[in-house]
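Subject: Sanity check before I submit

Could someone independently write out the structure tokens for this chain? I want to compare against mine line by line before I put it in a report. The sequence has 186 residues.
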Amino acid sequence: MRSIRAALHEMDEERLVRLVAKGDRAAFEELYRRTSPWMAVRLRRRCVDEQIVAEVMQETYLAVWRAAGAFAGAAVGGTAIGWLWTIAARRLVDAFRRRAHHAEPPPAAAPPDVAPAAEELALAETVGGDVGDALRCLAPELRQVLQAMVLDGLSVRETAVLLGLPEGTVKTRARRARIEMRRALA
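---
Independent answer below. Compare away.
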């Protein structure tokens, strides 16, 4: 048993997802152990309601267990981490929609003066040079929209629900962000 856990510990996330697709419970446990802490932090940056975060976490990992065979992975340029986040982001939007349907507004996202999130630090390290500088110079509300739409791959409507903004505001901020990025990179 110890050697199986050690072997799983050495595998990358893509391989773990492929084993989960075959029904490997130990691989699923390792994937959860490895990814759930950052997933929870990322979700909490977008939603302060712990009940919604817990619900989204549960729905995300249930979806991973059930649909791991659908992961296309590196063959289409994706990563297991990106695939997991896409599932979680969509589940969060669904949770906000359910809450909006029941006439309760979604709780506000964490205030922008909080220490930078891990993904922001990773983005700063991976997107360097002029593009990284331009991203860091964007106003926080523009960077939020750009992150949701470009990095998280959400639609305008999903971004609007996620950030609690009207769709028109999301479109305007996305346009302003593109203009400012072009200006900074010119």
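---
OP: Matches mine. For the report I'm noting this point. The domain at 1-110 is CATH 1.10.1740.10 (Rna Polymerase Sigma Factor; Chain: A).
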